[in-house]
UniProtKB/TrEMBL annotation, chains A, B:
Cofactor(s) recorded in Swiss-Prot or TrEMBL: Mn(2+); Mg(2+)
Domain Isopropylmalate dehydrogenase-like: 2-341
Name of this chain's protein: 3-isopropylmalate dehydrogenase
Pathway the protein takes part in: Amino-acid biosynthesis; L-leucine biosynthesis; L-leucine from 3-methyl-2-oxobutanoate: step 3/4
Organism: Dyella lutea
Assembly and oligomerization: Homodimer.
GO function terms (MF aspect): 3-isopropylmalate dehydrogenase activity
Length: 346, 346
């Protein structure tokens, strides 16, 4: 299998290197051949080429079996009025790869429950899979800006909604058969279309219980009854907000992975944390989210379920018995966590 | 002073009646004359007149010194495809009254900290005032719907942003001199305009420290560092989501008030909870949010600060020593809580 890595900015290179090391250990242990090819994206790509997603990076991703990304952005490129911004590279990549379904699993490791802002009794049974629509909505709609006004258009077609909702139903079938669709149908037209599509498709998945929640209520319910949810599907911007909120429950943003999938097997994998400029270059970033993203890559793009579970078990063991990085209450550095996971994989 | 009440749907009438009783007790105790005039809004207005905001209701509100609202909506009127919906009445009222600044204070009563999903140590020093823009953004932008697509436009003018941001700065000056502006400037054009306006105005308020946060990060920070925030200003939809999330911290949605203000003294006051159809008509709804909204009415529309504080102290005392409604772990009904507050006011 051929894997393109896009380390990006800030701690991106550090955590991506750790995830690559894990994939190499898996290849060795299970006798697979993985080839890696590194490319630029984000701020470092702007510095080197003037563009946040150089043509060479995109072309390589489009030929790869999977893409492993670190993080993009940082204070150096964060002027919101700049015409070229690191995030544009990431958004362009998501669109070009057609990875419309962003899977963000949330589980709370028992050994880390004390780090969560939520009371421990609330965290029991928390096991949610968010499915965020990733290539539509206000992120990609028409924008205008005049001297004294600005607009963003949120647009969805039925087809865009249907494909991500079907993916969510299919995932619910492999889990606990419960799907929560989140919208703001009491105010937004796109949300009414969203709800209509879910209601139209639902009868085809009779074994899945469907529930609709308004996004404001859901922001509350994620805190008051997080154990109640199985698969949660929603549009791009709501998904951005709700998954970061949910991530806080896990104890550290550094722990959580994501997979972005389209029609084929090719996927884009990235930890949900950002470039963390405050700790970049120090070798102390938590590589867990990146390593678990590598596990998702094994599962979804390479069809290697056993290998994926091996990585997840190794990570879980290290979270329980250390070493740990600072964000999860330890003193270990990135390399120490990486080495412990490599040891557990072998 | 002349106050229009719009009890609305579900538990709206029950909690509004309790809030009116509190205002009457204040009038008696402090020797003021308040007159009350009740009108229809929401689902009950649709049933009676076909319209969610009948002209008579709006005209009365436009002549009143203040408007006290209960809640709108319920399963009877919740078909998202219906052409007339209860929420339209509320949105039309907010727009017609020009109440662009929605103030949502969040404090966690020490006696209720055990009801919060957040760990107690996180709740120390939580005292946030959200200022949500209420008459712009995707709520009021152009919408389209065709057979297979839909759009919502989020639009902001500089003037719309400037007036609500100035209000937030002014409020920060009366509090702890810290303002957090929340946007999604790395993706949305309206957010870039928002940030530009905040940056342009900030030098006029040198005594206020300004911080910018992306909405996804903010959804997380509200859980991990809630004690860090003073005044938080944001656009309509982000404010809808973040304030419901924050409300969960208080232990029950039934506790929290809101005030919606425009240029003059006239304001719209409503608890942030909804119509709670599951418990409507049983006399068990928590009237605290409505009573604290009445306190905000005394403060912001009538300029009666001492009276407002008297109500707040009475409510706080009752929360500490009971009786309490079910949502906050008690067995009392709405009337018991109301009577205890009335007693404490006198
Ligand atoms: C970097 C940013 C554009 C991105 C998003 O908003 O999608 C990030 O927050 C994420 O969630 O992956
Ligand atoms: C009822 C609904 C339209 C309303 C809103 O979204 O503004 C409510 O959620 C609120 O926050 O007051």
């Amino acid at each position: 299998a051929h894997i393109v890595t896009l380390p990006g900015d800030g701690v991106g290179p550090e955590v991506t290197a750790a995830a690559v090391a894990v994939l190499e250990a898996v290849a060795e242990h299970y006798d697979h051949r993985f080839t890696f090819e590194e490319h630029l994206i984000g701020g470092c790509a702007i510095d080197a080429t003037g563009e946040p997603l150089p043509a060479a990076s995109l072309a390589a991703c489009q030929k790869a079996d999977a893409v492993l990304l670190g993080a993009v952005g940082g204070p150096k490129w964060s002027d919101p009025n700049a015409t070229v911004r690191p995030e544009q590279g990431l958004l362009a990549l998501r669109a070009a790869l057609g990875v419309y379904a962003n899977l963000r699993p949330l589980q709370v490791h028992p050994a880390l429950a004390n780090l969560s802002p939520l009371k421990n009794e609330k965290l029991k049974d928390v096991d949610v899979l968010f499915v965020r629509e990733l290539t539509g909505g206000a992120y990609f709609g028409a924008k205008t800006r005049t001297a004294d006004a600005a607009t963003d258009e949120c647009k969805y077609t039925e087809a865009e909604i249907e494909r991500v909702v079907r993916r969510a139903f299919a995932l619910a079938r492999e889990r606990r058969h419960h799907l929560t669709s989140v919208d703001k149908a009491n105010v937004l037209e796109t949300s009414r279309l969203w709800r209509n599509v879910v209601q139209r498709i639902a009868p085809e998945y009779r074994d899945v219980t469907v529930e609709h929640q308004l996004v404001d209520s859901m922001a509350m319910l994620l805190l008051t009854q997080p154990g109640r949810y199985d698969v949660v599907v929603t549009e791009n911007l709501f998904g951005d907000i709700l998954t970061d909120e949910a991530a806080a429950l896990a104890g550290s943003l550094g722990l959580l992975p994501s997979a972005s999938l389209g029609e084929g097997k090719r996927g884009l994998y990235e930890p949900i944390h950002g470039s963390a400029p405050d700790i970049a270059g120090q070798g102390v970033a938590n590589p867990t989210g990146a390593m678990l993203s590598a596990a998702m890559l094994l599962r979804h793009s390479l069809g290697l379920e056993e290998e994926a579970q091996c990585v997840e078990a190794a990570v879980s063991q290290v979270l329980a018995h250390g070493p740990r990085t600072r964000d999860v209450g330890g003193h270990g550095n990135t390399a120490a966590v990486r080495d412990a996971v490599l040891m557990a994989v072998e």
